[in-house]
């Protein structure tokens, strides 16, 4: 029997949808925290193929999810382009900033990213050997806009203000940066597929802060380019696009970009998505990650409600965003029982 996730991506409607969770390998799991400790820190874990493969496998062993997602980070691409990257404990990522032509000039060409990223391809090769036969591996990268917001600000920002400011004040530089990230992302994802990733996902976590024509130019168009080039190189490759908080812009996104599936955040209702988004194909989502912390009957009811609302078309069950460090692993079992039971 073909893998459940691949069947959903091919448009098959299933009584019980395949399920995996964003950030399923992460700090809510004690075994993840132990392996990260063993690696030293988060980035050392990302670049250690044996240990990165181990943390990718941990949630598969514990929960029996229908897909594994490569353990890495979207900010490895800026690092491969030459940006400095480090993580401040309890705060998050920091990067050297790109706000002037002088900052941009030393960035490497896209074809040079493989030197830094080759350990990630080794992680993929290990995983293809070690994953159970029925569990496909999802590779991923950040979408150009989201990656650019971190490269421009040098950190996460609540409103992506610095990136919007550069877009408004120096559009040629902003567009050159997006172009470089786009090219690097094509190279990176293509190499993941060559190493054995069976599906790829493009995370545009901050797509929702792009409005109107900006959304089309800087979220939709780059996704379309990346997906078009990947499918030219790997014709059967399924792609999941996640323009988080796109709202009304979710409508038609998969048709316009060529994505096989669109990821939904928790702000849109499953009923609305069934009518307006799922008519174009597979959707993924969209349980509120908070329910993995609070649990109880509401978790059970919401899981079933989303499953039922999206049951008339192809659906991959997931959260609306990543599972948080304060989530209770027991609640994952509760959700799986509600979904599959
Ligand atoms: C914006 C973004 C990043 N990284 C990612 C995104 C897009 C998705 C999203 O919106 O969440 C994507 C990502 N990051 C990670 C994965 C691995 C696969 C998975 O299990 O989903 C994936 C797919 C591991 C990680 N990436 C990070 C962790 C936590 C690091 C740790 O172990 O201390 C993990 C497991 C760190 C990270 N990485 C990033 C930030 C802002 C942070 C700090 C915030 C935080 O601590 O949660 C950048």
From TrEMBL:
Molecular function terms, GO-annotated: uroporphyrinogen decarboxylase activity
Database matches in InterPro entries: UROD/MetE-like_sf, Uroporphyrinogen_deCO2ase_HemE, Uroporphyrinogen_deCOase
Principal location listed in the UniProt entry: cytoplasm
Subcellular location: Cytoplasm
Catalytic class of the enzyme: lyase
Site features described as Transition state stabilizer, chain residue numbers: 73
Family listed: Belongs to the uroporphyrinogen decarboxylase family.
Oligomer and partners: Homodimer.
PANTHER family registered for this protein in UniProt: METHYLTETRAHYDROFOLATE:HOMOCYSTEINE METHYLTRANSFERASE RELATED, UROPORPHYRINOGEN DECARBOXYLASE
Protein name: Uroporphyrinogen decarboxylase
Organism of derivation: Tranquillimonas alkanivorans
Gene for this chain: hemE
């Amino acid at each position: 029997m073909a893998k459940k996730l691949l069947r959903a991506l091919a448009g098959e409607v299933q009584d019980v949808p395949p399920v995996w969770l964003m950030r399923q390998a992460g700090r809510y799991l004690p075994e993840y925290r132990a392996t990260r400790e063993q690696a030293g820190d988060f980035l050392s874990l990302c670049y250690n193929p044996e240990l990165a493969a181990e943390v990718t496998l941990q949630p598969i062993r514990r929960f029996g999810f229908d897909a594994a997602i490569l353990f890495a980070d979207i900010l490895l691409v800026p690092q491969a382009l030459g940006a400095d990257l480090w993580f401040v404990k309890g705060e998050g990522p920091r990067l050297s900033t790109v706000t002037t032509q002088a900052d941009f000039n030393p960035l490497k060409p896209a074809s040079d990213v493989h030197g830094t990223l080759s350990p990630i391809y080794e992680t993929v090769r290990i995983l293809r050997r070690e994953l159970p036969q029925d569990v496909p591996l999802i590779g991923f990268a950040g979408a150009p806009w989201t990656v650019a917001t971190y490269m421009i600000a040098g950190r996460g920002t609540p409103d992506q203000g610095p990136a919007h400011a550069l877009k408004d004040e120096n559009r040629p530089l902003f567009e050159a940066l997006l172009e470089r990230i786009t090219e690097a992302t094509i190279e990176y994802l293509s190499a993941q597929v060559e190493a054995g990733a069976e599906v790829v996902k493009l995370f545009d976590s901050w797509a929702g802060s792009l409005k109107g024509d900006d959304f089309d130019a800087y979220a939709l168009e780059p996704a379309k380019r990346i997906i078009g080039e990947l499918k030219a190189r790997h014709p059967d490759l399924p792609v999941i696009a996640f323009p988080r908080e796109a709202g009304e812009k979710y409508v038609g996104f998969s048709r316009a970009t060529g994505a096989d599936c669109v990821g939904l955040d928790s702000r849109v209702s499953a009923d609305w998505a069934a009518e307006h988004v799922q008519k174009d194909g597979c959707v993924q989502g969209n349980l509120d990650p908070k329910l993995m912390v609070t649990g109880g009957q509401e978790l059970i009811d919401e899981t079933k409600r989303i499953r039922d609302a999206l049951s008339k078309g192809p659906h991959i069950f997931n959260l609306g965003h990543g599972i948080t460090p304060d989530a209770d692993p027991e609640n994952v079992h509760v959700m799986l029982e509600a979904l599959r039971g």
